[in-house]
Amino acid sequence: MEPDKGIIELARAARAADVPLVTVGEGPLSQMFRAEFPEVRQESWCDAPRLAVLLQEARAVVMPSLYAEPFGMVAIEAQQSGLPVILPHTAFLAEEITNRGLGLACNVLDPTDFARTLTEMKEMPAQDVRRISETAFANENPFAMTPQGWGDSLLSMYNTLVNRAA
Question: How far apart are CA 124 and CA 144, in angstroms?
Fold first, then answer.
């Protein structure tokens, strides 16, 4: 639970969307988080069997990072578990996740967009969630960019940042 991971933005969006939220882990924000968001079920670090139980109860996994995640293991692990993923547009995997139909991307810095995306996932018909899961398990196109693809994505991000600064 660190500020740059977007946990506060996620909790605020979940509250606004009236979506139940479970977090796993600890960190510098843990104590403040418990006080400010008592409605969130906060789990400490847990072993793999406990995490498996929590994932079985989940509708989706959210990766709300506030920075451009260069890879996003959370998204990959969720996909490998058959769970839909919600991630920021700025994550390098966002386009691939959405194009493959494995989840949704949003602007995690826009509370309205973030809450709308959580609501969309909550209200998604069960057959659509099942389709996401089956697509993920089929793993026909594993997530592994070529070195050239990684370089192109990194240069694209740098160009965007340079253009914004100019």
Answer: 28
Whole-prediction pTM: 0.82
Evaluate whether 9 touches 67 at the Cβ level (below 8 Å): no
Confidence of residue 140 (pLDDT cuts 50, 70, 90): low
The count of other CB atoms within 10 Å of the CB of residue 14 is: 24
Give the chain's domain count. Answer: 1
Instruction: For residue 4, give Cα distances in angstroms to 7, 141, 149.
Output: 8, 30, 26
pLDDT of residue 157: 81
On the question of pLDDT at 37 being above 70, the answer is: yes
Distance from C-alpha of 104 to C-alpha of 129, rounded to nearest angstrom: 12
Q: Which residue has the tokens 């967009």?
A: 113
Binned at pLDDT 50, 70 and 90, residue 68 comes out as confident
- C-alpha 36/C-alpha 103 separation (Å) is 28
Whole-Å CA distances, 91 to 30, 68, 76, 95, 166? 24, 5, 12, 8, 22
DSSP class of residue 19?
A: -
CB-based contact 53:24 (threshold 8 Å): no
Domain that holds residue 33: 3-165
Residue 160, domain CATH: 3.40.50.2000
